[in-house]
Amino acid sequence: MMFPLPLKRRKREAASPTESVAPSSLFPDVRIFLVERRMGTARRGFLTSLAQRKGFSVAHEYSGDVTHVVSEQNSLTDVLSWIERKTGKPTQSPEDQESPHILDISWFTESMSLGKPVSVEARHRLGSLEPPESNEKDVLLSVAPYACQRQTPLTHHNSEITDVLEILGKAAAFQGSEARCLGFTRASSVLKSLPFKLQSTQEAKNLVWCGGHCQAVIQEILEDGRCHEAEGLQIREQYQCMELLTSIFGVGVRTAERWYKDGVRKLSDLEDPKLKLTAEQRAGIDHYSDLKQPVTREEAERVERLIKDALHGFTPDLKMTMTGGFRRGKQQGHDVDFLITHPDEGALSGVLKKVVDWMDGQGFLLYHHTKVRSHVQPRRRSTHMDGHETCYAIFALPNLDSLDSEAGVSVVPDGDFPSPGPRTWRAVRVDLVVTPYDEYPFALLGWTGSKHFERELRRFSWHEKNLSLNSHGLYNTEKKCSIPATSEEDIFELLGLQYVPPSYRNA
Ligand code: CTP
Ligand code: MN
Ligand code: MN
Predict the structure, then answer these.
(1) pLDDT per residue over 253-294, tens digit each?
(2) Which of 58, 144, 154, 256 could serve as 149's disulfide partner, Cβ 3.0–4.6 Å?
(3) Does 337 qualify as catalytic in the annotation?
(4) Are 506 and 150 within 8 A, CB to CB?
(5) How far apart are CA 310 and CA 389, in angstroms?
(6) Ligand 1 atom with the shortest distance to the CA of 337
């Protein structure tokens, strides 16, 4: 089936070849070649620069020094015959030691996510099965309605459209319309799960959640490469202010809306004493410029090391897991999320207070509020409530160089009395959650996200299975009993869902 590109787009893509060659490679044994067939010029260009930024060597032309051939939506036969045509030589057998690995995009995605080449496993290799030609896309277009029934990778093929849908969703939320926001989020999430780049309005017509307004938006972007509505919204003062205000720690849409109505337009307007900020908002404003910088994976790992070492000083076998976006393979996030547990409930009591006191004693604690464990009633409906003992903190992460020296323990962050000389730390948002051992799989599932994936899991449980799921457990509300699980895999199985690994929960 052919889906011709509209003329305008074809021209633009042809005009932007990415032919720059990476100056150096961190991995001398790996030279990647990305097969453009079915991937498209634009995506190939994007993936090429992504890989180069991460220190991979990417060949622009196929040659004998290529070690890893990566393609999308092609069969092994497709790729081999394509190589034959390019080189004019018959391809060696894939088992041949000298032959490059012929791989699916999953090898590439995993390697980028880890920041180094992962070893090639059977699941990465292209099979010799021909993909169904005639109605392949029709099959792919019958996307399952719940995000938890789909695989949604971190990098996908339709960001041009999903970026716009997300702007429209945000604007709807800023106008107080949660339902419209959800509509855009659902459509965006469907497009993120598509294993190919949407190329025609006809294809979009068959997609679940992509009708009505969303369909018009998709059509405009496909035909015109832009969306006037989103462009118009983004330049509105209300949108820009709401975006600024809601990006402050402790400020939700409601507060931001109230402030906007009261005439707040910029951060300095928040210094008005009439506004009565909460301690959380005060801290959010004080550390605004640090907190708006995304937390890198390297920083997240440094926070993890520091807190883990402290925890193990209290109780050696406490288990601490990084959850949230980083567990889904993101390379940066707005905070770092951790889950703490231990098989012995006694070992957990008082642990959060100990960590807080330790952070405070070390000068790491710029702000925190803790929430004690609340008893979460298995309610009639699935609930978004999370009753775990939780600490929402702003952590003063010592700079790399100051961590190496003694300075690591003498960080004295103080907004009011800045110490002379350059700052040796930076503020990072950290969430710490303590969970009883039997609830751990549910907490892990609940705190790994994405938020939309979680919402969909709960909706699926309730509407399709009549079970209530939250980050404490799974409940049969009719029989008034909870259903235990020992792993995330268990929970998916109990819900009759195929297991979705964290890196595919980026719904
Ligand atoms: N979560 C929760 N209860 C809260 C806060 C968050 O259950 N009080 C869950 C969210 O539903 C989400 C996960 O914890 O699934 C992580 O939340 P968050 O840190 O806000 O989002 P991330 O996906 O980690 O995004 P980022 O990388 O930007 O931090
Ligand atoms: Mn997070
Ligand atoms: Mn968080």
Answers:
(1) 999 999 999 999 999 999 999 999 999 999 999 999 999 999
(2) 144
(3) yes
(4) no
(5) 18
(6) 19
